[in-house]
Amino acid sequence: MVLFLYFYIMKKYPIGIFDSGIGGLTIANAIKSVLPNENIIYYGDTEHLPYGEKSKEAIQSFSKRIIRFLLTKRCKIIVIACNSASSVADESVTNIACNTSIFNVIDPIIAEVSKISTKDNIGVIGTKATISSGIYEEKLKKLCRNRKIKSLATPLLAPMIEEGFINEEISNTIIANYLSSTQLKNINHLILACTHYPLIQQEIKKYYRNNVNVIDSANIVANYIAKKLEEDNLLNNEKLSEYNFYVSNYTDSFEKSARFFFEEVIKLEQVNIFS
Ligand code: DGL
Ligand 1 centroid to 3 CA: how many Å? Predict the structure, then answer.
């Protein structure tokens, strides 16, 4: 009876999601599509954006603050919807949540890529923080020592997307410039290791003319989370979904860009949890 009550209450609690800004809304959007009954609380640390240019210690410290905030909102699980934060989220970060599971956006991709033939070359693009952490290589090589991985930091892409330069001449030029790098030569699959990049997936696919499999990270993460919630008996059965969005530094432009990321009009509320 006690256990039944525990799950009855827990199921209704929201999924906490955070990112350095609004890129993680691509993950929130995918979770909303796969799990339409779930309540979502989103925190975008727009004050400290971009995480991709910050030190490991700074990103860990921001992440801990945000996790504490999401715990006060009684989140049943927390998703680190930022590759840069996920890449440095060691136990010092995840252990602060005690009874709440914290998921990163890297492990679901690793699980998916592990199904790909080891003869194929895997490319990874992401922020400087993600690529310099070497986390994708480390995790993929742990599963298969001979796996060939080619990584490239593409730091201009996140600010470009954030500014709304999508499917324009300038964005296609920047994308082509990065993807033509010899560093990514002969890849068969490309991991979009930044939560902003699903928004330029079509341009990337167009660049490769379907010769490279572009891995759809947002949907992979959303399906992974859905499976975990189901396994833990935490899926919300009632259609009561409510979405709340918080940012550390509010600007009109973020609210406008957020529409592209979440695919509906949303209201961002400023909550400073850092002072
Ligand atoms: N969303 C972040 C990521 O996935 C990129 C933006 C940033 O540098 O903060 O790494």
Answer: 39
Domain ranges of the chain: 2-104+220-270, 107-217
Looking at CATH, the fold of the domain delimited by 107-217 is given as: Rossmann fold (3.40.50)
Closest CA to 20 of 38, 44, 54: 44
pLDDT digits (tens, 9 = 90+) for 107-149: 999 999 999 999 999 999 999 999 999 999 999 999 989 999 9
Rounded to the nearest 5°, which phi and psi values hold at 265? -70, 130
At 58-80, the pLDDT tens digits run 999 999 999 999 999 999 999 99
Contacts of 23 (CB under 8 A, 6+ apart): 81, 82, 158, 161, 162, 194, 195, 196, 261
Contact between residue 44 and residue 19 where contact means Cβ atoms under 8 Å apart: yes
Catalytic residue positions, numbered: 82, 194
Count CA within 13 A, CB hemisphere, residue 81.
36
Confirm or reject CATH 3.40.50.1860 for domain 2-104+220-270, answering yes or no: yes
CA of 188 to the centre of ligand 1 (A): 24
Question: Is the CB of 14 inside a 6 Å radius of any atom of ligand 1?
Answer: no
* CA–CA dist 22, 261 (Å, integer): 7
Residue 250: CA count within 13 A, CB half-sphere: 11
The reply to whether 2-104+220-270 and 107-217 are identical in fold is: yes
